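your task:
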Amino acid sequence: MLWALSVFAMSAGTAVVPVFSAEVYLVSVVLTQHGPPWWVLGPVAAVGQLLGKAVHYLAARGAVRLPRLLNRDDRREGWRWPRRLGELCRRHPVVGASTVLLSGLIGVPPFAAVVLAAGMLRVPWPVWLPSAATGRVARFCLLAALPELLWFGTPLAGAPPS
């Protein structure tokens, strides 16, 4: 239980201030501890990550006020890419949801950038959250299960040497 809480806290913290990788921490906990199984740690890490990224989403949307140091008032009006991307997502809503899903799963494009873009483009919460949650839960479950799948003695890796 304590390891699941530490994975949650690390995932949420690194989602807000990315100074360390939540993925590396999750895999290191799975490799070094005999605590909760991958199917517990994966969703716990995903929920922590999504709570932290929700702060970024809401800040980009303007719902959360940032400290003055981080709030830039000198935004360029000449930037056309946010407007063009917003038009594309409005014309093809499946493209936006699938981009969030793929970014949450494989990290391309970077999930942090996609979260900010979704907030700036005012992607509705009911569209963003299920796509992001599905991608993140799948990613963290796969990462947490990977050491077990590659460990000697599993049916996928073969029997350990005697």
Q: What stands out?
A: The helical segments are 2-16, 22-32, 38-61, 81-91, 93-106, 111-120, 125-150. The chain has seven helices and no strands.
